[in-house]
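Hi L., both proteins are below.
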Amino acid sequence: MFYDHQQIEKKWQKYWEENQTYKTSNNTDKPKFYVLDMFPYPSGAGLHVGHPLGYIASDIYARYKRHQGFNVLHPVGYDSFGLPAEQYAIQTGQHPAVTTEQNINRYEEQLRKIGFSFDWSREVRTSDASYYKWTQWIFIQLYHSWYNKNTDKAESIDALIQHFEEKGTEGLHANQNDELNFTAEEWKTASDIDKEDILLNYRLAYRAETTVNWCPALGTVLANDEVKDGKSERGGFPVFQKKMMQWSMRISAYSERLLQGLNTLDWPQPLKDSQEYWIGKSQGAQVQFQVESHDEIVEVFTTRPDTIFGATFMVLAPENPLVETITIDAQKVEVDTYIEETSKKTERDRMSDVKNVSGAFTGSYAINPFSNEKMPIYISDYVLMGYGTGAVMAVPAHDERDHRFAKKFNLEIKKVVETEEDIQEKSFDSKDSVCVNSDFLNGLSYNDAKSKIISEIETKEIGHGTTNYRQRDAIFSRQRYWGEPVPIYYKDGMPYTLPTSALPLELPEVQKYLPTEDGDPPLGNAKEFAWDEANQKVVATDLVDDKTIFPLELSTMPGWAGSSWYFLRYMDPQNDGEFCAKDLSDYWGQVDLYIGGSEHATGHLLYSRFWNMFLKDRGYINHDEPFQKLINQGMILGMSAFVYRIDGTNQYVSKNLAGNYQTQQIHVDVSLLIGTSDELNTEAFKAWRPDYAHAEFILEDGKYITGREVEKMSKSKYNVVNPDDICEEYGADGLRLYEMFLGPLEQSKPWNTQGLSGVYGFLKKFWNLYFNGETFEVSEEEPTKEEYKVLHTLIKKVVYDIENFSFNTSVSSFMIAVNELQKIKCNKRNILEPLAVIISPYAPHICEELWNLLGHDTSIEFERFPTLNEDYLVEDEIHYPVSVNGKMKFKISLSAQLSAKEVEDLVISSDKMQQILEGKTPEKIIVVPHRIVNIVI
C-alpha cells in the first residue's frame, strides 16, 4: 500500500489543532511532568534542520510520559525581544514588533509542520505587554527587597527600614555596595533623599556607577557573552570598557546558594563546572597596605596570605579609582595610555589572555605590613576591578602570572615556600611545602601558616579572613529600544518605582530607533513618556516639570529579563491578576526535563536560578530550583560545499584539479549541487550572484566537483538545510526519526540528506505491516510466542532507551523489530496495536493514522504504553555450541530448563559426541549454562 506521508501528516496536524489534543489541564488527579525546551528567539532566517534536534527529543519524552499516564506540560513561546529586530528597524525603519511578528509566524508554521505536541494555548511572547507587565512587576519586587545574611534570604525593604529605625546599622548583616555605619537617630533625622540613597546601597535591583561593555556603533551596553575578541558578537563592532550609571541585579548575594544548589541538580557536569568557575568561590584574607607618602590604603584579597612575606610588588586594575590619586606626574602619560588601551578589551578577554604580559608603573610604593619593605605599584589588565578589591599583592616566586610580570619588569622574586626548584626561572605554586624566609611562619605547613597569618592580620587590625566570589552583580540596563521598559521614574534625581497598578509600562512609539542627539537611549525620542505622579499615568514628555510630572527611565531591560521566569508563566499564562497562581506553581513545581544548548551556562541558566530563588524567598513560589534535569543537545553540523577560484581570474577549477593552481576556496550554496551528489550545477551557480555570471569552469570528466567539509550549520556558510524541504520529500516523521538516528543526543553530528532514504524505507515497511497489498488487514488471531518475543524485546529496549535519552538506539530497534515481524509475516492485532503505541512518540503522524485504521476513534496520544512481560523473553531452547579442545565441533538444541549436569549428560550421550570420543573418557567438561559447553579430551 502506498505510504502517502503528505496527506497523512496534513490530516493529523489539522486534527490535533482542531481538537486541541495537546491542551494541558490544570485540574487533574494525574501526577505532573513538565518538559521544556529553551526559549527560542525567532530569527528572520527561520529554522534549519539543526534547530529541531532538542525539540524532537523533548517531544518524544513528553509523548512517552503521556503514554505513562502523566499530566504533561509541554509549552512553547518566544523570547521575542532582541537586538536583531532592532538592528533591522534602524536599517529599514520597520517597527521591531512587525519584524518579530513575521518571524514568529514563520517559526510557528515550521514547528507545526514537524508535529510537535506543544500546548499552543499557553504560548507566551516576552515582547507582549501582557507578559512583560509581570517582568516589570518582578523588577519592582527586587527593587523593594534586600538580602538579609542572618536569615540567608531576600526580605522586604520594609524590614530593613524598621531595623534602621530601631538600631541603625548595628547588628545588620546585609549584602551591600559599601559598608555604612549610622545610628537609629541619624537615620530618623536624615532627609528623604538621603534615606533613598542609603536604601539603594542594599536593594536587590539598584542603580550605581559600573564598568560596562559599551558598543558605540550599536549604541548600547553588551553582556560579556555578547562580546567576542573585543567586538560585538552581532555586527563585529568595537567594544570599550566604560563607566556608566546602570541598573544592576544583586546576584552576588546568592553566590553561595547558587553554588550549593548545583549539588541538588541532575545537570551535565561540564555545565555545573562552568557555573562553579563563574561564581568562583575562594577563601583567604582581606589585607590593607599603606601607600608611601599618601593617606591612601590599598586593600587586597588574597587566597594565599601565607606568602605575604614574598609579596614584592602590587598590581592594581587600570580602572581602580586609586590609580589617578597615586600616579606621579612623571608616569601619568604612560599610565593614561595604558588605561586607554585596556578600555578596548572586555573583562572576558582580559581573563582569558594568560600569555601576554603588559603593565605600567604608577611611580608609587606600598609598604609590606610584615616585611616593611617597599613594593612598587603597577597597573595591569590581568587585574579586574570587579573581582576582589581590584588590587593584588604579587608573589612572583609562587604565582605563575606574577612571575611572568616580574620577569618582564625586572622585579624582585623572593622564595617564601620551600622548594628545590629555581624560582628565578619558574614559579613554584604548590601548597604542599613549608614556609621559609617568612619570620614567624618559617617551618609551618600551608594550613597552619594561613591560620597563623590571618590571626596576625586581625591582631594588627589591617584586615580579616574572608570568603570571596568572582561573580559580580549583573548589569540590568540596555540603551536600546526593543526591550522591556524599566518601571522607574526620577524625582530629585532619585529613582522611584511606578505603582503596580500602572503596569504594564508600555513601550512608547518613537520616530527613530537610534540614541538621541544628546546621547540618551532611543526611548529619549518618545513624545509620550513621562510620569504624572498625581494622576498616576504616562503623559507627554514635554510636560515634565519635576514637580508633579517626572522623567521615566530611558534604558530598557536586558535580553535575559523575560527568559528568567518564563517557565513560571507557562503554568498560568492567561492570569491577569498575578504572574502565576500559587496553587498552580505548587502543582507544576520544577521543570522536570529541560533541553537546550550549553551556551547558556553562565547567562540564562544562572539568572533564572537567581530569580527563582528570589521568588521563593519572598513566598511567591515553593521550589528552590527551576530546572531539575537538564540535557545539552549537541549540534547538527552542515556539510559545506566549496568552489576553487584561480587567483586573479574568474575561472573556477574542479576540486581534484585545484592542486595544480593557486586558488581561493569559496563557500557555495549547497542548493546549487545536483541532487545529493558533490557535482555543481554550473548554470545555477552563474545565476546565483551577479559576480559569478561570467564564471568559467575547468572541469574533470565533464563535471565540476565541489569540495565538501563538515562545519557548523549557518546561513553565512550556505550549508543550511530547510526542514520544510525534508518534510515535503520524506515527511515530518522521517525528519524526526532521522534526527534521532544520527547519533547520541548530546553529541554533535553531521547532516547527510542521503541518509534519510533509509529511515523513509523503514516507515514504508512499518506502514505495510498493516496491509495485504492495497487492503488494510489485521488478524484477530492470538500471536505466537515468537511474535510476542519480538514485541516485548522492543518494549524492554525502548523503555530503557527513552528513560536514558538514548533515542538513536531506539530507532535501530524499531528497524530490527519491523524486519523480524515482516519476515514472519505477522499481522496480529495484539502485536501491531502496541507496536503503533511504542513508535508513536517518535513518528506520531503515521501511528495516529494506523491507530485510526485499527478502528479507534480517539488519538493514540493517551493510550497506555505497553507493559513489559519478561516471560516472553525467556528462551525455551538454548542452541549450545560444543567445543572440543578449543575448537567448535557442533551445536545442540536443549531445553532452557535443564541443569548444568543434565546438559553435560545429554551432550556426552549425543551421537556426534560419541563419534568424536571414540570410546575415550573426557578429561574435563565445562558447562556455562545457556552459553557454551567446553570439553577437553
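That was the first. Here is the second:
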Amino acid sequence: MPGRTPRTPLDRLRTPRRFPGFLKTASVCVLIAGLLSPLSQMAVAAETATATDYCGGQCSDILPPGENGNATLAQILLNQAFGTQPSHAEDQLGPYANLAKGYSALTTDKINTFFNDASFGVASGQVASTESPAGRTDVTIVRDKKTGVPHITGTTRYGTEFGAGYAAAEDRLWLMDVFRHVGRGQLTTFAGGAASNQGLEQEFYRNAPYTEADLQAQIDNAVAHNGTRGQQALADADAYLAGINSYIDASDSGRYFPGEYVLTGHKDSITNAGTIDHFKITDLVALASVIGSLFGSGGGGEVNNAVSLLAAQAKYGVADGTALWESFRERNDAEAALTVHNGESFPYATKPDDPQGEALPDAGTVTQEPLVYDRTGSAATATAATTATTAAATATTAAATALSSARRGMSNALVVSGRSTASGHPIAVFGPQTGYFAPQLLMLQEIQGPGISARGASFAGLSMYVELGRGQDYAWSATTSGQDIIDTYAVELCQDDYHYLYHGTCTAMEKVEQKNAWKPTTADGTAAGSYTMRVYRTKYGPVEYRATVGGKKVAYTTLRSSYLHEADSIIGFQMLNDPDYVNGPAAFQAAAQHINYTFNWFYADSTHTAYYNSGDNPVRASGVDAEFPVWAQAAYEWRNWDPATNTADYTPASAHPNSVDQDYYISWNNKQAKDYTTASWGDGSVHRGNLLDDRVKKLVAAGGVTRVALVKAMADAALADLRAEDVLPDLLRVVNSSPVTDTTAAAAVTKLQTWLTAGAKRTETSSGSKTYADADAIRILDAWWPLLVKAEFEPGLGTPLYTALTANLPIDETPSAAHGPTGSHAGSSFQYGWWSYVDKDVRAVLGDTVAGPLARKYCGGGSLTSCRDILIGTLKQAAGMTAAQVYPGDDLCAAGNQWCADSIVQRTLGGIKHGNISWQNRPTYQQVVEFTSHR
C-alpha cells in the first residue's frame, strides 16, 4: 500500500519566483491530471490502544504552519498556480495567528481553539488514516483528522523506531534531505547555486568542517561511551533509518515523492529516472551539527570582544577603557532578569582577578580567514561573491560585521509552581522559538513503544525521539541558554601561514575541502558554476581569523566543547522519552545533564517543577578570561584537554544553574542565575525576559493562576514593544522635565504617551485589519530609537568605539528589522539591543539610583538639559520621517506598509508557500500543560 500523499531549507532557501513564469494554467491542469494517478487513499482504522495519560485533557500544543511538509509535484504546481494547499499543510497556522487578537477573551474551553489537544492517542471518531508501514505487523501509524499528526505505536522497539522514521519521511523528506546536505556543506550541489544557498552552506561549513570519517567517529564514540543506552541508541537509529529508506523506496516506485526532486533535477517527472539517495547514519550527525550550531552552541566572539576592548583602551587608556568596556559588557549585572531568582550563585566564566595568557590582536591587523577558493562560472562574478559573503555573514548573526559571532538564542518559558495555581498543580506554557518555515524545521509526533512514551516536537530527520514535549505524567521544554562553550586560541605561526606551534613543535595545519558545482534547474536558474570551500584545522579547532599579536603572526582558532561531539546528546533525549527513567525532577535533571548543547531545560508534572542548564562547560585554566583570545599553549588549555578526542574536564552538574520547585521560572534567553556569565551581550536592566518576569510575578503574587492566565501573560508579552514598555517612560520623563513648546515634538510626545497608556502593544485595530492601533506612535518610536541611541552615545564614545560596540551588540531588533537566523519577517524580536544602556544612562542623568551603572554618563554629557535637547531634536527628526522611509519595503511588502513590514512569513524551504500573518513574539512550537495526577 502506498504511503499517504506526502506534503512538502533555512531562511534563504526560497522557492524561486520564476515558478509562475513557466506555469501556464492549461499545461498545469494537464500535468496535474497525469501526476495524480499514482496517489491513493489509506484505510481508516479504529482507535488504537494508548498509554496511560495523566494530563486529564489539559495538555495542548501548536506548531505552524502544519504537519504536512511534503508535497508532490502536482501539489506544488497547484499551490504555485492557484494557491491551493495540500491537506494539513497549514491547518495550524490560522489558530496560531488568531491568538494575537483572541487571547484577551480566552477561556478554558477556548484554549484548544488556538492550540491542539495534545492528549495521547486518537479518539475513534477522529482517526483519519491508519497504516502499517512496509506491511510490518509490529507498528502502526495513525493520523488524526484535525492536524494529521502521526501517532506511532509499536509492539517492538525496532518496529516503533522504524515507524518513526517512516512517518518522518512522509512529513519532511525533502527538508531532511536539504539539511543533511547543509550539514556537509553540499547544499549548492544538491539544491542549486543561488547566492543564498552559497551563503548558507558556507556559514555551517566554516563552523563544522567535518569529513565523512569525522561523522562516523562521532557515532562510534557516542555508542562506545554510553554502555547499554549507547547500544540502544545505535539500534534505534538503524531502525529509524530503515523506516526513512523504506518510505523513499515506496514513494519512488509509487511516484508520490516530494516534487522538489523533479524541480531540482534529481528525478524526471515523465520517466521517473533519477534517484533519491538513501539516508545513512552519518546523515544524522550532519543534521545534528546544523541544529546544534543554530540553537545550542553558545560562545565565541572573543576576537570581536578584543577589538572593542582595544578601541575603548585607545580612547580612554587601559584602566579607564577597560572599566568602560566592562560596564557595557554587563557580565553580571545586578538589575538583570534571572531564571533562578532566589539569589543562589553559580559562578561561571567570571572575570579573573589576574587574567593570564591573553592574546589580543595588534590594532587593525585582524582579517577573517578566507573560505571560498577557485570560483568558476556564476560563482566567479563579483556580484555572486559579494552576495554570498553577505548571506553567510547574516545567516545566523545579527550584527552587520563579519567579526560578530552573536548568535540568536530564542524560545521562552513560563512555569508556575502548584503553590500559586488555582488547582494546586504546576502549570507551564513553554516552547522553542525556531523561526517560521514551510515546512517547519520541527515536526509533531506521538511515539508509543517499549521504553518510549511521548508526544511533542522533534527536528526533522532527528525524530527517533521526541525532543520537546510531554510524557505520560510530565512535560519538558527548552530555551537557548548561550553560556560560553567556545574559546578562541591564538596559534603562533611557524615556517609559513599553514604551520603552527603545538607544544613547541612546528605542526602542519590540516586542509579540509569541499568542492561544489551546480547547473541551472527549474527551481534555481542560477548559471552553472563551482567553487571550493577550504578550511584549515588545528588541534585547537578551525582557523577563523588571522592577525598579529605583539608583531607575531597568529591564526585565531575556535574550539567548542561540542565540536566532534554532535551525536552525544542523543542519550539525554532517549532518557527523556523513557517513562521508566523519568519519574520526577531529579531524573529529569539527570537526563538533561546528558545533553551537551547549551540549553535551559524546564519540567513540570502534577506536583513539581524543575530547571536545569545543560552543556559541556569546559573547566578553563586558572586566570583565563573566557571573553578574550588566549595563547595556544599548554598553560591556557582546558583542564585535561585531549585534542585527539576534544574532551576535557567539564564543570559538575551542581555548578550548572539548576532548581526544583522555585515559585516560578521564566526564560526568554535572559541570564540564568547570579554570577553565571553568558557569551552574548545585553543581559542588563532591560531584557525581553522582563516582559515575562513582570507579568508572571504579578500572577504569582495574586495566586490562583490558571492555564488561561498564563497563556494570556505569554500572549500579552508577545505583542509588547520592549523599548516602549520598559524604556520609553524614562525617555518621556527627560523630555517632559520642562514644558515641550515645539509643536512637532509635542504632538509626537502625545502620540507616544497615548500608546504607552494603551499598553504599548504592536497589535491590529481588529483581527485581519492589517493596520496597527497607534500606528503613528509605533512609526515614531521605530524611527526615533536608532537616532536617539546614536546621538546619545556616539559623541561621548567616539565613532571608532561606538562602531566597535555596535558590532558586539546591535542597537535595535524590531520586528521589521532583518535579524536572527531567519532574517526579516522572523517574529522573534527585542532580544538584542541597547535598551539596557539607554535605560541605565537616562536614569543616571535623571538622578535615579542605578545598580551597575555605565562607567560614565553619555546623554548630553550627563546634563539633563543637554540630554533633553538631544532627545527632542532626534524625536522631531523621527516624527518627520514618512512611513515609507521607516519601512522601506522588500520583496513582500510595499514601502510604507507598517503591518506587512512586521509580519511573519513562513520561509519557503520547498515548493509550498503560505500567506504572512500578524506579528507575534512567541515560541514556534508551544505547549500548555497542567497534569492532574502522577504515577
